[in-house]
Structures are given as structure tokens and as C-alpha cells.
Amino acid sequence: MPWTTEQVIALAPDPGAAKAGRELASERRWTGLGRSDVALWGECKGSAATPYQAEVDLSETEPAFKCSCPSRKFPCKHALGLFLIYAARPAALQEAQPPDWVQAWLESRKAKAEKAAAPKKPAQPVDPEKAAAQAAQRAERRNARALEGVEELNLWLHDLLREGLAELPRRPQSFWAVIAAHMVDAQVPGLARMVGDLSTIPNSGPGWPDRMLARLGRLQLLLEAARKVEELERGLQAEVRGALGFNESKEDVLSEGELVTDEWLVLGRVVTLDERLKSQRTWLRGKTTRRPCLVLDFAAGALALDQSLMTGTRFEGDVRFYPGSKPVRGLVANRRGEYTKLETLGGDDSVESALNAYASMLAASPFFDRAPMSLENVLPHSDAGGWFVVDANGVAVRLAGGPACWRIMSMSGGRRMAVFGEWDGVRLSPLSALAGGEFANLQWLRP
Amino acid sequence: MRTWKELTSLALQGTGKAAANPEPERHLLDEAAWHTLRRLAGHQPAKITRIAETEAATETRPYVATPAAGRLEEILRTDDHEHLVEWLFIAASVQKLVPPSLLPSLLERGEEQSQLRAAILEVGGHRVHWLAAQNDEWGFAAIADPLESLKSGVRTARVAALAELRRQDPAAALATLMQSWAQEGGDDRTSLLPVLEIGLGPGDEDFLTKATTDGRKEVRMIATDLLARLPTSALIARMTARADQWIRFRKGVLGSRLEVTPPAECDADMIADGIEPKAPKGTGERAHWMRQVLARVPPTHWAPEYLEAGAKSEWSEALLLGWIEAAARFGDTRWCVMLLEHYMPRRDQGNLAAGFQNLVRYAPAAAIEAAILDQLKRSPAYAILIATARTDRLSPAVSAPLMRALELEFTKQDKQQREQWLAGMTRPLRPRLDPSVLSDAIAFADRATQAGATFAGASLQALAANLEYRAEMAKEILS
User: Fold this and answer.
1) What is the mean pLDDT of residues B255-282?
2) Could you say which residues from 48 to 67 on chain B have a Cβ atom under 8 Å away from some Cβ of chain A?
3) ipTM, interface predicted TM-score of the complex
4) What is the largest CA-CA distance in chain A?
5) Which residues from chain B sit within 8 angstroms of residue A438, using beta carbons?
6) A110 and A9 within one domain
7) CB atoms B40 and A415 under 8 Å
8) For residue A331, which of A236, A260, A241, A234 has the smallest C-alpha distance?
9) What pLDDT is stored for residue B345 in this prediction?
10) A339 C-beta neighbours (distance < 10 Å), count
11) Pair A367, A332 in one domain
């Protein structure tokens, strides 16, 4: 896959590393620059006597880095510099056989990956029946624990309502942390996350009781569905399990998930930082099928998020969806050909049809918070009531405020344009916009 | 089915205190969920029928290409001020436009840092005026129609509009200002009057002279200050007449000298002309008055011999300070160079330090470059010093000999100190040198490393990396 400077910069752990990497992206600082099908390498002259050996492994979707420098940043400025040279001027790296030090690293990585992939050899020959029985037993244990978690949260929720919500703003953080920790123990991380979200509401300003009760009502709906999960149809079962935090393995999705082939528009991206975990939501939409697809990625600590999907572009390929009744979450299984610039966000021409699409998503499964919304031919507008985008019929949706609104206004120049974002039922958080041939990512991650 | 309002008030007080049907909490939550989903699915969008927004004019100049826009976004995201200044400066000089999505960030920067404003207006095209007109905080850029903005804009917008009008036609701008002058409030007069510095000319004198009798002290001071920048003004003629009374040139066998008799008192006329009667602590009153008067006499009034003779006078400090201020005030290249040429070595004496600092900072760029080239011949160390004190860019014609001087001085430094000395020199020079000296910097770095000065090699590598970054940035913008 060809890499762009922008994608490589996005891998930098912080702005300082990005800037330093930029300054090292010069052939003059390097000797022995080379590349093979799967790797890049080079030696960078620094202030130390021996040059640093930097290498990049491109054999998988997410690149891996190694450098002999003492920096604890990852990737370090040397690896970034090397990668940036490749992105800007691939020919600056000679095609060659990897030198020994690169070869050794690649092999050790490959060996590790194989070891991880290989099934643990059982001491005795496997009895397929017995193995299946064991797996079923494990699944049953997990289900039982999850159900215990659901029951506990249900009780907690009812206690909360019996006591009344009025006291909540004075509750200490531990009030929420304890029950959230129990949900983690019960292996229902989805519920733990929801409790975490709840804890922010009592101090979120006027109107919090309305927001709290709305959330609690929907949580109750989920708990109720979880208790009766056997009675639900299969798709909805999967939605409920997904919301509780049962994770389908990527491998299973890539081999068995619903397959949709289309031209996919990479519409927008949000990155959020939560203590040490970075999460990234990338939204796609099939041009012909109009299927929305949400690709999630997580990275802990200094690790970089997946940069293989470039917003503002489109590609032909296959997407596999996670199980569900009208699933949105998916994975790109296969990409054919190159990325091409987007000329359209493939959105709805009227606010009404966008809202109808949202309502039918809710009808299929009420267990999600944000839906993608893409609008064509809208005008940004601000007045005393806040920021809006307005369609040709004068129908408007409210925008979540912030600097993105001014960027949208600037891009429009008073003319109709396309806006994409996440709709929470009340406000649209804009993620990207297209006007006069300019595509812009509106979410800037300020580290 | 209960209403949402009933549900929330019950939820707040708690079901425990209410009459109980079985599982009251569960019923409450079920109904809340039902209300919530119904509301979400049936969202009633707002109707906005009156949108009176105007369209921005179509741009005629080209936008920068994607790589340049991407780099600007990166620079803005990382708050990289040094490269932001450079990026804007290059783009403005080649008349390219910034993509509209980046304009709000630029306007925010311009609001905080006025030195960026001219470049931002240049790269923002019509769009930046159109956008800024919608946000009071961006008044400095809201001048799509300067006449209209001057009439009805907020104060910052009025100042920007008057500046724009002065750039277009100073006389017409003055006429426009005079129409509303009598009705302007004190704060507006104080904000608008300094703008006349743009395109200042003899045609402004009558108006400024009237303003020296304004009811407000700030206005009077601004007016006097502007008149003191107008070489043909009556105020300057009075200043010159005063100076001529106090300073006489005497030719002698043992060399020329100046006979200096500063005034014994600061009279009412002098005060009316803007002379500050109170001297700062440590400065004699008479010297203080003379310095202020000299600062308002165009240096061309004096023959160059006055400088040499004055420097030997017992009043030399006041004379030099006055001339330094005048040279910077009137942008007199010749006097700037003469002062920097001969009197830089005295920069550490008493009050002269601050004077030279100001001279180096405010002298015209051409004078500074000439002074650097001149000092390179006699005292490279001073040349480097002058160069490091500025914030603007040096031309290739000065950058190249400066690089050579840097190496020469480096080899002359004491072995123990030289690496530290070089690091101290390269850091301020880094953003100022022209990228064309990249290969010289690399060659110097190699020679320093070979000579065992590893640390120096590293700071030069950093200098080279910076030059290379800037060269690449310029290439992106120009392509």
C-alpha cells in the first residue's frame, strides 16, 4: 500500500516527534537506505558515534517499527523520518535484500506471530467432541457470569431510582467506580463503559436529570433484553451481546461476517483519548449499497492507531460486518486498487430522509448511541439559537458547537455544501465536510 | 402512560417515597425508555426559512497545493509559531491562497498576534473578509468593504478598514476620517489616529496640527508623535531650529569638535511640542531634553562629520542616543549604517545599550543588511550580533558571508567555550538565515565533527535540518 506523508505523520506519538521526524526526513542524514517488499531500513547519523539503525516492517496492515536509538517514543523520530522519506520519495530507498540486522528482526517478528497464531498443542490428541464440549462449557460459564453482572446492575439501577436521582451530583467518584469495576469483573465491559458515561452526567449542567433518566431508561432496555436474550431473534441477540461487550474475534468476522462488496467512501474519523487508551472510529459508506460501516480501532499507550483508511478518499473492496440485525460495525477485508479522492460524501439531499434513515436504524436495534449522518446541499447558519445546517427545504439540524462550525462556515462561502458527522438524536457532531473541491477533516486531535 | 415531566420529578425524589405498585422502579425506567426512543425516532427538526447570508466573491488567485495545505495544517495543529510565520510570509509573497477550512485557525492566530495580520489577509483572499465579517472577534479582517466597515463596524474593524483605505489612497482616507472626526468619541479617536502612520505625508499636517489641541491627552500625544515623523512639518522645523541653537560645529587644527550647549530649561513651547520635561532617574535633565529634540530632527540635516565630532563631546551619550532614535524613526539607512559601523563597540556604555538594541530592532532591513556586510569586514563578531538581534529574514547575499564568518569566529574561540558559543549563535540565527546556505552549513558541520567538536556538529546539523525543512516548505508553496 502506498503511504502518504499525512498518514505517516498521524502515526507520530506526539507533535514533537512529528516535527523531529520531518527534520530527519532527508536523505542526507541517512546511509544504507533500502527497501524490500515488506520492509524499509536505513542508518541515521546522530550525535552518537555509531549511527542508529531504524527499520519498518510493512508486512501487515499496521506497520511495525524498530530503532537502535535510546528514545522511548514509539515510533521514534528516526523510524518516522525513514518512513517519511519512503512516503515522499520511495525511489530514495534502494530495492535490495534486507541486510542481516533487518532480516534478523523480520524473522523474529514472523516467528513470534506464528507462535501466537499456532494453536496451543494439547498434550493428548484432540478429541473433537470433547473439545467442543469444553468450548461450550466455557461459553456457558462466561454467559452465566455476564448474566450475574446484568442482574447486579439491574438491582443497582433500581436502588438508584428508589433513592432518587437528586443526590447524584454530590456522590463521590467511587460511587460509580465500584459498580463499574464489578461489571469489568463480570466480563461485561460494555456495561462498565456505560456506567462510566453515566458518571459524567450529574455535573454536565442544566437539564442533567432529563439526560440521566433518558440514559437510564435505555440502559434498562438493554438489561431487560440481556435477561431475555434467548427469546430474541438471532440478529438482535448479536446486537445485545455486542452492547454488553462480548467481542467477536476479528478472525471470525473476516471469515464469516456478512460480506458486502462496493465502492467505499471513507467519510470521517474521530479519535478519543481515555486515560491510556486511544480509540478511533472511522466511518465508511457504500456508494451503491448506501450501507454505513463503522471501523473501530484501539491502541494502548504510545502505540499508533491504524492509519490504513484515509478519510476523504474512496476505494473498491469488500467489507465484512460483525453479526447483528442491521449491523454497522465492520472490517475492511479486502481493498482492490488505489485510493481516489472523494467528489461526494454520498449523503441525503434532505434532512427529512436522513432522519428517516436514523429512525429505521433505531427500529432495527435501539442499542447504539451515535449514527452516521451525511447531508448534501446544506448551508451552515448560526443565530442566537446556535449553529445549524439547513437543507434546501429550510429544514435544519443542530450542530454540536465548537471550532468545527466556523470551519464549515468558512468552507461554504455562503454556498451549499456537504457535511458528514455523528448524530446522537439531538445534535450532529460534524466530522468532515466537502465544499468547492476541498475535503476537510474537522476533528483535530490536540494532543 | 405518565408524561416525561412526571417521570423525571419522580426519578429525582425516588420511588421509595411514592405509593408503590409492584416494581415501581422498573415501570418508571420502561416508560422513560419508551419516551426517549419515541423522541429520538420522531425528532422534529427546526425550520429555518430566513437565511440572509451573502455569498463570498469568487477567488481569482490560485490556492496552494495539497502538500502545502497539509503542512500548514500540521503547523497550526502543533502551534509551531516559527514555521507559521515563515509559511505565511512565503505564501503571501507569491500571492497564493489558503484553503478556506484553515481560515478560522488563522484568524484566531491573527487576533492574538497582530504581526501576522497582513500576511493572513493576503493569503485569505475574499473569503477571509467574508468570514471575519460574521465574527466580532475577527474585526481586524472584516473589511470586505472598507468604507462600509469604517462607518458601521466594531472598533477593531474600523481600525483595519481605515488602514486599508490609507494603503489605497492616503488623501481620500484622511478626507473620509475628517468627515466623522468631530463626532468620534475619545476611545475611537485614540484608536483611529495612529493609523495615519500608514502613508503619512505633508497632506496630513494641518489635520494633525489641529489634533495637537485635542481635549484628550492620548490624542494630543499621538498627533505630536506623527508630526515628528513628518520631515516637512512645522514641528520638525521648530525642533531643528532648537537643535541648531544648541549644537555648533567647530573646525579646529586638532580636529573638529562640537560645541554643545543644551537648554537650561524646558519651556512651555517645548512641552507643547511633545517634549517630556521629567528626566528618568540617573539622566541629567538637560541631556534628556536635548536627546528628545535631536530624536525629532531628520538625520539628513546633519553632515556626517557631526557624528564623529559629537562622539568626542562630553554630551556624547545624549547626542548618540538622539541620533540613534532619529535614524530609526526616519528610517535613514545611511545614518543607521554609520551608527552601527562606528559605535557598536560602545554599545555597552551606560544608556547606549538600550539605544543600540532599539536601533538594531527598528532600523530598516536594508540598513541592517548593509551594516552586517560592513561589520563582516572589520568585526565579524559584531556582524553576527546584529544579525541575531532581529526577527526578520536575511537575504541570500548576507546569509552566505554570515555562515563563513560564523565558522571563522568559531575557530578563533577558546577550545573550552567554542561549542557552547556556537550553539548560542546558531539558535537565534536559525530561523533567519536563507535556506540557500544549506550546503555551507552541512560542510561546516562535517568539518566541525572531523575536528572533534561533536556537539558543535550536532547544533549545526540542527541548523541544516531547519534550513532544509524551510526549503522544502517553500518548494511546496511555490509548486
Assistant:
1) 89
2) 48-49, 51, 53-56, 67
3) 0.83
4) 74
5) 99-101
6) yes
7) no
8) A260
9) 65
10) 17
11) no
The predicted structure's pLDDT at residue A393: 93
Q: Clarify whether residues A194 and A276 are in a common domain.
A: no
Is A124 a domain residue?
no
Choosing from A176, A208, A242, the residue where a domain stops is A242
CA distance linking residue A290 with residue B314, whole number of Å: 88
Statement to judge: residues A278 and A379 lie in one domain: no
A15 touches chain B (CB under 8 A): yes
- pLDDT reported for residue A447: 35
φ, ψ of residue A323 in degrees (nearest 5): -65, 150
Q: How confident is the model at residue B355 (pLDDT cuts 50, 70, 90)?
A: confident
Cis peptide leading into A75, omega within 30 of 0? yes
Q: How many domains does chain A have?
A: 4
* Exposure string over B373-410, b if 16+ CB within 10 A, otherwise e: ebbbeebbebbbbbbbebeebbeeebbbbbbebbbebb
The mean per-residue pLDDT over the stretch B296-306 comes to 93
- B180-196: average pLDDT: 94
Q: Do A112 and A11 fall into the same domain? A: yes
Instruction: Using 70 as the pLDDT threshold, list the residues of chain A that sit under it.
Output: 1, 47-48, 119-126, 275, 302, 444-447
User: Nearest CA of chain B to the CA of A249: how many Å?
Assistant: 31
In this structure, the answer to whether residues A231 and A186 fall within a common structural domain is yes
Is residue B405 within 8 A of residue B380, CB to CB? The reply is yes
**Residue B303: CA count within 13 A, CB half-sphere:** 11
Give chain B positions within 8 Å (CB) of A363.
Answer: 41
- Residue pair B206/B267 in contact (Cβ under 8 Å)? The answer is no
Instruction: Residue A158: list chain B partners with CB under 8 A.
Output: 23, 25-26
Is the CA virtual torsion B267, B272, B278, B283 positive or negative? negative
| Residues linked to residue A240 through DSSP beta bridges, in sequence order | none
Structural domain contains residue A130: no
Mean pLDDT across the stretch B122-128? 93
Pairing relationship of beta strands A427-435 and A417-423 according to DSSP bridges: antiparallel
Backbone angles phi, psi at B440, to 5 degrees: -65, -40
Domain co-membership, A336 together with A356: no
Cell numbers at B28, concatenated: 418508571
- Taking only residues 69 to 108 of chain A, the set having a beta carbon closer than 8 angstroms to any beta carbon of chain B reads none
Instruction: Specify the pLDDT at position A446.
Output: 45
Domain annotation covers residue A277: yes
Residue numbers of the domain that contains A42: 5-116
Is A390's CB within 8 Å of B100's CB? no
- B31 touching chain A per CB within 8 A: yes
Q: Is the pLDDT at B19 greater than 60, yes or no?
A: no
Burial class (CB in 10 A: 0-12, 13-18, 19+), A116: exposed
In sequence order, what are the beta bridge partners of A42?
Answer: A54
- The whole-model pTM stands at 0.80
Distance of CA B333 to the CA centre of its chain: 20
Give a three-class secondary structure readout of A394-442: CEEEEECCCHHHHHHHHHHCCCCEEEEEEECCCEEEEEEEEECCEEEEC
Domain end position, chosen among A215, A242, A269: A242
**Residue A121 domain flag:** no
pLDDT at B20 over 60: no
Q: Which of residues 412-441 of A touch B (CB under 8 A)?
A: 413-415, 425-426, 433, 435-436, 438, 440
Residues A10 and A110 occupy one common structural domain:
yes
3-state class (DSSP) for residue B130: helix
The pLDDT score that the predictor gives to residue B348 is 67
